[in-house]
Design a protein that fits this description.
The complex is a heterodimer of chains A (115) and B (114). Chain A is an all-beta fold. Chain A is built from no helices and 11 strands. Chain A is globular, with a radius of gyration of 13 Å. The termini of chain A are far apart. In chain B, β4 and β5 form a beta hairpin. Classes of the chains: A mainly beta (115), B mainly beta (114).
Chain lengths: 115, 114
């Protein structure tokens, strides 16, 4: 049981390049989230998904797109990378229900640098 | 939307002392308040959470208190140890909506001096 995994772990892009970050979870969770973490700013929600085939915008969606074609995978795309997108990206998943089921499980993160 | 403020941004204590981190939230509909611990270079991990129908919850050396009227909640760590050194994040969210998204505070870097 790997939990939540992310690929790649590190990436350096030049301005204008594109890339896709992959998040996978093996816990059969319905909900998946993409966050970015910048120094002194906590985690900010980029996009999220409440189930296979659904996606929705979070707090900071501009410049990103997402897809959830399979329940276990949530992809984050950058079509034209900008230096402002230099950050650590975390994926998380959770299951519906109350109490402990509200816990979000995080992946190990992807450190992205855009030069 | 929800706004979560967290204080202090850094906190240094002596080993064995207590540490308190405070958060306020703005959306009265929020009903779930988790605390995450993030060690350097690692992923955030849940250490304790509380729902809005409970005023206090304790798990060994850590406890969380919630004041719904004032819209603030706090993390208390007693008998701190060097391994408690990390960044701690509070968060708030409404788990009764389809979104079930969390809004995070900006984090508190806790340093426990041996």
């Amino acid at each position: 049981n790997a939990g939540v995994t992310q690929t790649p772990k590190f990436r350096v892009l030049k301005t204008g390049q594109s890339m896709t970050l992959l998040c996978a979870q093996d816990m059969n969770h319905e909900y998946m989230y993409w966050y970015r973490q910048d120094p002194g700013m906590g985690l900010r929600l980029i996009h999220y998904s409440v189930g296979e085939g659904t996606t929705a915008k979070g707090e900071v969606p501009d410049g990103y797109n997402v897809s959830r074609l399979k329940k276990q995978n949530f992809l984050l795309g950058l079509e034209s990378a900008a230096p402002s997108q230099t950050s650590v990206y975390f994926c998380a998943s959770s299951s519906p229900g109350r109490d402990r089921a509200s816990e979000q499980y995080f992946g190990p993160g992807t450190r992205l640098t855009v030069t | 939307g929800e706004n979560v403020e967290q204080h202090p941004s850094t906190l240094s204590v002596q080993e064995g002392d207590s540490a308190v981190i405070k958060c306020t939230y703005s959306d009265s509909a929020s009903n779930y308040f988790p605390w995450y611990k993030q060690e350097l270079g690692k992923r955030p991990q849940l250490i304790i959470d509380i729902r809005s129908n409970v005023g206090e919850k304790k798990d060994q050396r850590i406890a969380v208190t919630l004041n719904k009227t004032a819209k603030h909640f706090s993390l208390h760590i007693t008998e701190t140890q060097p391994e408690d050194s990390a960044v701690y994040f509070c968060a708030a969210g409404n788990m009764d909506t389809g979104r079930r998204a969390l809004t995070f505070g900006s984090g508190t870097r806790l340093q426990v001096q041996p």
